[in-house]
Specification:
Blueprint: H1 9-16, E1 24-30, H2 32-35, E2 38-39, E3 54-58, E4 61-63, E5 70-71, H3 74-84, E6 90-96, H4 117-122, H5 125-137, E7 143-150, H6 165-179, E8 187-190, E9 197-199, E10 205-207, H7 211-224, E11 228-231, H8 249-252, E12 255-259, E13 267-270
Parallel strand pairs: 1-6, 1-7, 3-6, 7-8, 8-11
Antiparallel strand pairs: 2-5, 3-4, 9-10, 11-12, 12-13
Helix pairs in contact: 1-3, 6-7
Amino acid sequence: MIGAFLALAQAALTTIGHAQEPVQAGLLAGQSNMDGNVPIALLPPELRQPPAKVGLIDRGLAARIAGGERFGPEVAFAATVAAARPADEFLLVKRAMGGTSLAGWAPQWDESRLASKYDTAAGPIYRKLLEDHAAAIKGRPARLTGVLWMQGESDTRYPALGPDYFENFKTLITAFRRDLHAPGLPFFFGRVNMPADATEDDKKTIKFPYIQQVRAAQERAAHEIPGVFLIETDDLGKQADGIHYDAALPRRGLKRCGRNRNSRRRKCFRLLAVRRF
């Protein structure tokens, strides 16, 4: 959802310390604003050449950063970590799909609980992301630095999901840390911020009646769960639909900090405009 978004950037850098590992891996996941749908023509020239030491696995396949017709937040992230740690090698493992809810991302995937056709189409997406990560690092030393998450818009639409966002989110974070054998794994996420009513390109009005409940749940997660950091997004530019972020942010090189009351350290990120959900 963040048409201008997220990068695991300095968050990964400050968290992993100075250990020199062959590959520093980060997971990128969520729905449309993590997936990214900004035309490549809008990408600033300085970001069009991918860093030599930052690799990308997208939905299980090796991909070239900024190599398609559209781009996502991995572009800004790659540039940030490459500039900050030029001697290190990074690997970004990404799986995101527009419209997916936390029911679709549930570690214990249950088809009967799925909220939408997007959840059904994605299948057990949490498990697929873990499989992507395992395959990407197989046979090579690697260190998992964190998870970067942009999701929640879909949950604001459904009475079975919006009010329960905190518990579902906590379950997901706990599962990542358990299944990846990383109990202190840093988890960074962008806050959702659509209007209660939004209009898509086809002029169809979509209602998000549980937006305030989901926002409050995200705030609570950053305050109560150790190692979970919220990235504020309220002042970022949006496209006409009010849901997806525009492409102005990459040009400004915006920087944001995640916050968590359980940590004295502030985790800073480059944010970049992404689209579609």
